Amino acid sequence: AQTVTQSQPEMSVQEAETVTLSCTYDTSESNYYLFWYKQPPSRQMILVIRQEAYKQQNATENRFSVNFQKAAKSFSLKISDSQLGDTAMYFCAFTLRGGGADGLTFGKGTHLIIQP
Amino acid sequence: SAVISQKPSRDICQRGTSLTIQCQVDSQVTMMFWYRQQPGQSLTLIATANQGSEATYESGFVIDKFPISRPNLTFSTLTVSNMSPEDSSIYLCSVGWTGGDHGYTFGSGTRLTVV
After folding, report:
1. Residues 58-87 of B with CB under 8 A from A
2. Pick from B42, B97, B98: which is nearest to A108 by CB?
3. In 3-state terms, chain B is what percent helix, strand and coil (to 5)?
4. What is the Cα–Cα distance from A38 to A86, expressed in whole angstroms?
5. Which of A43, A99, A104 sits opposite B109 (nearest CB)?
6. Residue B10: exposed, middle, or buried by beta-carbon count in 10 A (0-12, 13-18, 19+)?
7. CA–CA dist A103, B39 (Å, integer)
8. Nearest CA-CA partner of B33 in A97, A25, A28, A24
9. Does the pLDDT of residue B1 top 80, yes or no?
């Protein structure tokens, strides 16, 4: 079974700073999909960024980027120029097959607090 | 990506009763997923619902406690049966999409409190 580990229960940074959230995973498969989801107090799950394991290039979405290290099974999220609205729980997630064929395995989450 | 309407958004229920949660998707999808999020915790997959067949349950979850229906490609229900205070959680449904990039959409969740 696949596992996802987020070792930072909570992080706090000042507005406009850059912050990196860590995620490691364990799988014996060579192809899979990784995601970062944001959950604000509204509890709505919002997709932040995705990465396919067969793609060597790190995914980026505006202020959000990942550092995908396949050999190390590491998938960290970098948030640049952090904003107050980035305050939320962030979950790293894994699935083997794309296209919605399988459900997601989530890490325990990191509570990110952006201070004014 | 798909849009999901989940109902109810919250409910307070007496122990021993059952609650049925509904999810309606605005497009046809093969698989729908149900998750539980216990207070202050992460999301755990309960089961996968495939239209026309029995749902597939994850370890630790059983059909008698969490019966699921999937009558068509746009709708599913999850029932939490014979509830106890330990069932107090947020329950979310989700679907995946392929269009270009892969991802998952979630319903807005049902906050269940059992008293």
Report:
1. 58
2. B42
3. 5, 55, 45
4. 8
5. A43
6. exposed
7. 21
8. A97
9. no
Confidence class for position A61, pLDDT limits 50, 70, 90:
very high
| Tokens, residue B2 | 């798909």
Compare B73 and B1 and report the one with higher pLDDT.
Answer: B73
Q: Work out the pLDDT band at A100, boundaries 50, 70, 90.
A: confident
What distance in Å separates the CA atoms of residue B53 and residue B47, rounded to the nearest whole number?
13
| Contact (CB, 8 A) for A95 and A102 | yes
Nearest to A103 by CA among B40, B57, B89, B4: B57
A16: left (phi over 0), alpha (psi -120 to 50) or beta: left
